[in-house]
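Recall that a protein's primary structure is simply its ordered list of amino acids. Everything else, from secondary elements to tertiary packing, is in principle encoded there. The following example makes that idea concrete.
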Amino acid sequence: MNKLGTLVRVGLKSNFGLSVLRHRILREKKDRWLIPFVGLAAVSLVPTLFGYLKLIQFLYELLRPLGQESVLPMYGILFGQLLILLFGVYYIISAFYFSRDLEILIPLPLKPRQVMASKFAVILVNEYLTVLLVVLPMLVYYGILAKAGLPYWINAAVVYALLPVIPLALVSLLVIGMMRLVNLSRKKDVLIIVGSLVLIVFGIGLQFLVNRSAGSRINQQALLDFLTAPDSLLKRAGAIFPPCIWATKAVVGGFSRSGLLHLLLLAGTSVAFLYGILVVAERLFYRGLIGLSEISGQKKAMSAREMARRVSSGRRPIRAIFRREWRIMIRTPIFLLNGVLTVAIIPAIFLLMTKMGSGRGDAAALLKAMTSGSPITGILAAAGFMIICGSLNGTSSSAFSREGRQFWMSKILPVSPRDQVIAKFLHSYLIALLGIGTSLIVSVVAFSLKIGQLVPAVGIALAGTFALTALGMIIDLARPLLDWTNPQKAIKQNLNVLFATLADIGILAALAMVVIRLVKSGMSARAVVGLLFATLALLSAGGFAVLLKFADRRYPEIEV
């Protein structure tokens, strides 16, 4: 137990890096600009949280006369568990099989179950933060509205503590089994990616089934009859994922017989899953781990002349660095899943939302009504959707961080910093183009836009993603995160990605406000679109010039 506790403490310190950040701010007096920036980011969440609470209050007042108010914590719990089920794949694969500290932990006198249990505990803490803004406001505000007593709050705290255990344990068991099979094959990276995609598609499909089970195609009278049946919504959702109904009845039931029984059922199942992880870890964890870092040797030794020829101008350095960037991403499945998959998963989820119903009030009809009012509305909506899908994936804002401690190789390469940055930019922008392409297809299906609207929308999206890609790279180049033990940390736990995302949202929001003012002033749609494209083009050219100039000065200063 002492060994496990020590491993968990070390893992948490490494995961969050609070001691390093505290040392840099208090001792070295660096990164102090992060304090007001983090405060500003926290303040920016207040309007969103206020709107979320108002929505909870509205739904509570709507459902209470029908006796269906318990559906509110149920949907909060269910959505939180689905988030864990979906995004837990990234954390599990990265922490269990691609963390650099495994090379240190494996030779130590530690049992496989101790190593895996410590990593599972660290991931569990991360998942508490993942669902914090989704589940906690729902449970707290529901308790306030319902004037719940002490039993409610005690059960709610226990349920929140157990909330990530079952979905995270389920993903862990599937990943351990998948990695054991992967280790039997020579195509490990390919199988890891394919298996991860299968797990993620399973999570999305489960969410789709839950939403379908809510009855998106029923008419108004059928909906009224459905809502007036006691616990009808709760039973429909619980049929898809039973732990959510156990958690909901445990919270709502308090210390009643039903509440305590369902709390014991949830806790017992969680403990059983945890025990299953430890048993499986003891038998399969190291078997699936050993051999993942093996690489096949060169079939032919490279001569000195060939090496000189490849690094010389005869092999176009930009093309060589571009191919190197692709290899780094492809050979690290976590980077590939976080980068390439993100640009496809957002359009896919959006498409599922628009196809969940065919009635007059479904999401697809609402979108078509919004975009068919005026041509410029459809253009701007499609362009904004493409920019979001193309830019908000963390590829550009982790372009330098992904190299980690191997960045010293980039510093000694006989290639200028400008050429290296151009190659990295082309790689990041290509990922953005994949997002634009997938979102373009979805826009055609969801918005039913005409060719005259699609062409300017694509032009705005290309210019916008160009500018945001340059901005993301500038942010990452300013303070690259090179000291990481887990590849997941280079993207998901990289402050540069957060800063770039906030900056992107701020720029897009400012442009949206300007466009709205121009439209209200009576400016023609063609003039507004032309002015927006010209503005984004200027931002793109300026941002790219700043990036190249910054690279010449910044590269020699970076310490590895």
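Residues 313-557 form one domain. Residues 213 and 462 are 38 Å apart (CA to CA).
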